[in-house]
Specification:
The complex is a heterodimer of chains A (about 400) and B (about 450). Helices cover about 25% and strands about 25% of the residues of chain A. Chain A has about 400 residues and is an alpha+beta fold. In chain A, strands 9, 12, 13, 14, 15, 16 and 17 form a seven-stranded mixed beta sheet that branches. In chain A, helix 5 packs across helix 6. Chain B has three domains: about 160 residues, FAD/NAD(P)-binding domain (3-Layer(bba) Sandwich); about 110 residues, FAD/NAD(P)-binding domain (3-Layer(bba) Sandwich); about 110 residues, FAD/NAD-linked reductase, C-terminal dimerisation domain (Enolase-like, domain 1), CATH 3.30.390. Classes of the chains: A alpha+beta (about 400), B alpha/beta (about 450). At the A-B interface, helix 1 of A face loops of B.
Chain lengths: ~400, ~450
């Protein structure tokens, strides 16, 4: 019998640590090779760690939410024959999260009052925990009880009362990632936002026409692939927007390929699946790929590469898109385009005619270190033009 | 006989319940096999306090005879007539016993002397002098109390005493060995030491009064040391033969001590046997009868109060429960739900504990502040030659609501009422601070302890 020390492998991208998302086994379990042991979460994705050997679990280091250093032993497995255990092994040291004590309410305790008030409350069938105390430390006086009775606050009747309990929810997993990344973005990037309205009447007509030709089993187009096409065209014309800013090395990485991140709400929170190499796709392919990666993200099955490498992000809330948003840039990108809802509005055309048009706002944010306001305005005006004259999308 | 309420046991639980029931016009019968007053009045609290008082007096006078303490000298040593002392004590017991019987009568309660045997939950046969009386009741309150725990290898009888016999001796034993250094053993052992006995304690635990915190028991420990009373800690008594106690000391070695009397005070156990409890279909919790906050047992209209329902086995708890139950039976809405029940040890010096200590509060997740005031800094204590000890207040750190009060010192038991009131009223440190305490009294130490907890005591 030997021991096999299963260590956290290098997950790439220079990661030094990863978070335990879930543990599928417990000490004493028999496992077979390739059986999932632990889910580790990196900045981008949750990676399933399969068992490299057959054997019995001897120990597991850490709990969900703990950060584990690359190379540290996560699971010790008893195996037939010789294991890989050396005399000295690095034990996984979970990185302790700071615990902030919170003064919780005193709801579970006896109400602060005198025995006489307690007796009166009992006789009047009043639950003293529901009587707001006006005295120091919430002490309930005879007057408080009188007021409570006068207000009709007997047991069984709903009363407006102060709630003092505080629930403490640990911020772990994807929530912690979201928090960290949002904070990083908002703290380090000087954001500014630019909003423009777009007449999407024509592109909507085109979209409906294209969809009419589709059979039941073929996916239909939403407005999003058209916006993706317009963004793609815009990026080609304004390449400074298709870049990452690296302040450490004081340089901007301008990408030739265009990888469109699509912000998606998943059951676990916000994720950004990526339609890679948009420049190589036509609108149908773009739509199909977007649906595929979004579905994978929502199902929690997206691969790392499907959740990383975007060069610009589009965020759309569809029908609840509102009038204006101020989107947060997906760090280290320099630009994000927010799509607001489409509404029919009366517009003035040809100088004097009032016409009902399908209108949609684009709310975009830029990194002012990299993209000047003038360039951003030109970029968005270009997208507006492309969407209002949809034929240009395909030229 | 038929009645609305039958109370079994006329101790501080039962007689109070019966008097209150009588006041509320409930047709009540109380059955007592011994004398009205129970353990407390007849063979516990009251006679032991009488003995302790006499012992204190004798000790003080002895001191005056030898060293002219306080400038007062006696020309000869005081002479103890122990039989007369016991007669004086018995006089107090008789008076209180008569008082209880009178109060019961005044409240219209029928008293039956004899031992009850229950046939079922609501019917019992009482063996009286004039024959068997069968009583059927609508409600039954079980207040049967408790008795000293007997060790199988040290059966009571002869020179092996329980607390009951220790309170009815006719002469002071020359050498008294006490097994068990809890509050009963210490109270009686210290009293007999003051009366002239050579007293030795055998305690299985590693310290005396193990249920109280160390800081609180230290002055008692010091008193024992100063008075040359040996305490064998970690020692286990194993047998008694020909006035020689054998025990195993803390190192596991077999030892013996010769003694005139052996007092065994290793706790009390509920009186649950020999009166038909098994015919009543009530639930038990451990050795005790299980009750809820209304003192209801599992059987409808059968109630239980006092020592038979568990810890703390204290007379004042039983009495409070008795009042609650009588009032519930009379149709009032009541529950037994005190903030705290004070406990007092009449050792030398005396100890009071009400509510939680800091470590107990911590175990419940409460952060606390503590204020302690030494009696040495209290003028009145010094004028009474009573400067050993302190008052300690434990309060919540967040809102200063007092969660516990502990004190040790001569005569300090008289402060227990104020302490209990503070806890029951939900007082904060500022409430005690804001109450003017009379000068010069020991109660000032309580106010000073609250100031100490608030960080600004005046006299320390």
């Amino acid at each position: 019998m030997g021991q096999y020390n299963f260590k956290l492998p290098d997950l790439g991208e220079g990661l030094v640590e990863a978070e335990i998302a879930d543990i599928h086994v417990k000490v004493g379990d028999m496992v077979t090779e390739d059986q999932p042991l632990i889910d580790m979460m990196t900045d981008k994705a949750t990676v399933e760690m399969p068992s490299p050997v057959d054997g019995k679990i001897l120990s597991i280091s850490g709990n969900p939410g703990d950060m584990i250093t690359v190379g540290a032993t996560m699971v010790v497995i008893e195996v037939e024959g010789e294991g890989n255990a050396e005399a000295t092994t690095v034990k996984a040291e979970p990185v302790a999260l700071p615990v902030i004590p919170v003064l919780t309410g005193t709801t579970s305790e006896k109400p602060l009052t005198s025995p006489a008030v307690r007796r009166r409350a009992l006789e009047e069938d009043i639950d003293l925990t529901r009587v707001p105390g006006s005295g120091p430390a919430g002490r309930v006086s005879h007057q408080d009880l009188d007021d409570f009775i006068a207000a009709g606050g007997r047991i069984g009747q709903p009363v407006q009362q102060k709630r003092t309990a505080i629930e403490e929810i640990p911020v772990i997993g994807i929530r912690r990632k979201i928090a960290t990344r949002m904070e990083l973005s908002k703290r380090s990037i000087p954001h500014y936002s630019y909003v423009e309205e777009v007449d999407v009447t024509e592109v909507e007509k085109l979209r409906l026409f294209l969809n009419e030709g589709r059979t039941e089993d073929q996916p239909k187009l939403s407005i999003l692939p058209f916006i993706m096409m317009a963004t793609l065209k815009g990026m080609e014309k304004f390449p400074e927007c298709n870049s990452h800013y690296d302040p450490e090395h004081s340089l901007v990485r301008r990408f030739s390929g265009i990888h469109l991140g699509i912000a998606s709400q998943t059951p676990n929170g916000l994720m950004v699946p990526v339609v890679s190499h948009a420049e190589s796709r036509d609108i149908w392919d773009m739509a199909t790929e977007m649906m595929r990666v979004s579905a994978a993200a929502r199902a929690g099955k997206a691969k790392r590469e499907e959740l990383s490498g975007s060069t610009v992000t589009i965020t759309s809330l569809g029908r609840i898109g509102g009038i204006v948003t101020t989107p947060v840039i997906n760090y280290p990108e320099v630009c994000i385009i927010g799509v607001n809802k489409i509404v029919p509005r009366p517009m003035v055309m040809n100088g004097t005619d009032i016409v009902i048009r399908q209108m949609m706002n684009l709310s975009s944010s830029f990194d002012h270190r990299v993209v000047d306001g003038y360039v951003a305005a030109e970029f968005i005006q270009f997208i507006k033009g492309a969407l209002e004259q949809p034929a240009t999308l395909f030229m | 006989m038929k009645c609305k309420l039958l109370v079994i046991g006329a101790g501080p639980g039962g007689y109070v319940a019966a008097i209150r029931a009588g006041q509320l016009d409930i047709d009540t019968i109380i059955v007592e096999g011994g004398r009205a007053g129970g353990t407390c009045l007849i063979r516990g609290c009251i006679p032991s306090k009488a003995l302790i008082h006499a012992a204190d007096k004798f000790e003080q006078m002895t001191a005056h005879a030898s060293d002219g303490h306080l400038g007062i000298s006696l020309e000869s040593r005081p002479v103890l007539d122990f039989k007369a002392t016991m007669a004086w004590k018995e006089g107090i017991v008789d008076r209180l016993n008569g008082g209880v019987e009178g109060l019961l009568k005044k409240a219209g309660v029928r008293q039956i002397k004899g031992w009850a045997m229950f046939r079922d939950a609501k019917t019992c046969d009482v063996e009286t002098k004039s024959g068997i009386v069968t009583i059927t009741a609508e409600h039954v309150i079980l207040a049967n109390g408790s008795k000293p725990t007997e060790l199988p290898f040290l059966p009571f009888g002869g020179d092996v005493l329980s607390s009951t016999e220790a309170l009815t001796l006719t002469k002071v034993p020359k050498k008294l060995v006490v097994v068990g250094a809890g509050y009963i053993g210490l109270e009686l052992g210290i009293a007999y030491s003051k009366l002239g006995s050579e007293v030795i304690f055998i305690e299985a635990d590693t310290r005396i009064l193990a249920t109280y915190d160390k800081e609180l028991t230290a002055p008692v420990q010091q008193w024992l040391q100063a008075n040359d009373i040996t305490v064998h800690l970690g020692a286990k008594a194993s047998g008694w033969k020909d006035n020689i106690l054998s025990y195993t000391d803390k190192d596991g070695k077999a030892q013996t001590i010769a003694a005139d009397k052996l007092l065994v005070t290793v706790g009390r156990k509920p009186n649950t046997e020999g009166w038909g409890l098994e015919n009543m279909a009530v639930d038990m919790t451990g050795a005790f009868i299980k009750i809820d906050k209304y003192c209801r047992t599992a059987m409808k209209n059968v109630w239980a109060i006092g020592d038979i329902t568990g810890e703390p086995m204290l007379a004042h708890r039983a009495s409070a429960q008795g009042e609650v139950v009588a009032e519930i039976i009379a149709g009032k809405k009541r529950e037994f739900n005190p903030n705290a029940i004070a406990a007092v040890c009449f050792t030398d010096p005396e100890i009071i504990a009400v509510g939680l200590s800091a470590s107990e509060a911590k175990a419940e997740g409460i952060e606390t502040v503590i204020g302690k005031f030494p009696l040495m800094a209290n003028g009145r204590a010094l004028t009474m030659d009573a400067g050993d000890g302190f008052v300690r207040i434990t309060a919540r750190a967040d809102n200063h609501v007092i969660v516990g009060i502990h004190a040790v010192g001569p005569h300090i038991s008289e402060l227990s009422g104020e302490f209990a009131l503070a806890l029951e009223m939900g007082a904060r440190l500022e409430d005690i601070e804001g109450t003017i305490h009379v000068h010069p009294t020991v109660t000032e130490s309580f106010a000073e302890a609250s100031l100490a907890a608030l960080g600004h005591a005046i006299h320390i």
